[in-house]
């Protein structure tokens, strides 16, 4: 009687155990489920990051319009030191639109620390310039939140807060094709004394009112994504000028637009570098703030002349849609 009960108990335990084949089947099913769910989770996370990036741009748009309501003009891209000898360079070395916008994006504390009468490279601005401004950071960009302004004569211990956004100086860039046709100086490509055809220009004389946006506020870019490149710091002007040549090209007699291959989001190309183009870590396109405060997605395959029209405030182009 006891032997029979023990035998039945052993058989029951044997039936309840997993076989090796069953275990492998379960593992395979789990692997398939993970393979199906992981892309969906990653897509959901990127969608959330894209929404946050869009909200950053919308907050900047509100800041620009509040600034305009206060001063009847938009801020300058960068205001330079009068002591500079070069008419173009002297437009560059004061703090940028990123600093002027601070009181209008709920960052008055940082703004009050800044000395707007000296270069952003001045030691007086190092502490304030190292502050992190969340509105200027796209969550999809993986780079460090603090950067050394590469190329400037600063100690390696000096770091400034990063920005992932660049201002629109205009559609004219600093590169051309074929290379033998490259201009010898900025004036050859229409940049005279720091004046471009975009919205955020250099020098106090370059401040624009909304009535200067002749192509329409909903068809003119004011700020776009530019998460990498030299000098990508919110306090400085340089990210604004370098990154405001988003298609790394300009029109010269006998030439045409130069494409950043393979698209807007390309981080490398024959005529491109990260300091010369708008780009992003989003899939399929980059986000841009229009002068009217709306945020639009520009896809990688946008026609370059259409893109150039969006970067010009007074080109007279008609852009039906993009």
UniProtKB/TrEMBL annotation:
Matches recorded under SUPFAM superfamilies: Pili subunits
Transmembrane segment boundaries: 20-41
Keywords carried by this UniProt record: Membrane, Transmembrane, Transmembrane helix
Alphabetized InterPro entries for the sequence: DUF1559, N_methyl_site, Pilin-like, Pre_pil_HX9DG_C
Domain DUF1559: 42-304
Keyword Membrane on entry: yes
Protein name listed in UniProt: DUF1559 domain-containing protein
């Amino acid at each position: 009687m006891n032997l029979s009960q023990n035998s039945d108990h052993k058989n029951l335990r044997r039936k309840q155990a997993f076989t090796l084949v069953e275990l492998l089947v379960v593992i395979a099913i789990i692997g398939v489920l993970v393979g199906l769910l992981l892309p969906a989770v990653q897509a959901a996370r990127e969608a959330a990051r894209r929404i946050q990036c869009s909200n950053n741009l919308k907050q900047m748009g509100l800041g620009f319009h509040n600034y305009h309501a206060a001063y009847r003009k938009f801020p300058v891209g960068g205001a330079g030191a009068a002591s500079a000898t070069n008419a173009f360079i002297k437009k560059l070395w004061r703090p940028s639109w990123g600093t002027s916008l601070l009181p209008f994006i709920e960052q008055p504390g940082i703004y009050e620390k800044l000395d707007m009468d000296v270069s952003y490279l001045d030691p007086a601005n190092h502490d304030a310039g190292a502050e992190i401004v969340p509105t200027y950071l796209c969550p999809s960009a993986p780079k460090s939140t603090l950067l050394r302004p590469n190329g400037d004569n600063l100690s390696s211990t000096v770091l400034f807060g990063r920005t992932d956004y660049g201002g629109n100086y205009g559609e004219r860039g600093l590169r051309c094709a074929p290379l033998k046709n490259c201009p010898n100086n900025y004036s050859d490509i229409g940049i005279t004394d720091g004046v471009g055809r975009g919205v955020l220009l250099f020098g106090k004389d370059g401040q624009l009112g909304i009535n200067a946006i002749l192509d329409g506020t909903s068809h003119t870019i004011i700020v776009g994504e530019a998460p990498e490149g030299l000098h990508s710091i919110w306090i400085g002007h340089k990210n604004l000028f370098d990154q405001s040549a988003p298609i790394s090209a300009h029109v010269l007699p006998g030439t045409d637009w130069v494409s950043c291959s393979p698209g807007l989001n390309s981080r490398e190309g024959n005529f491109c570098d990260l300091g010369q183009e708008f780009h992003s870590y989003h899939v399929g396109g980059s986000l841009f703030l229009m002068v009217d405060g709306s945020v639009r997605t520009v896809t990688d395959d946008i026609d370059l002349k259409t893109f150039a029209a969006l970067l010009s405030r007074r080109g007279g182009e008609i852009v039906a849609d993009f």
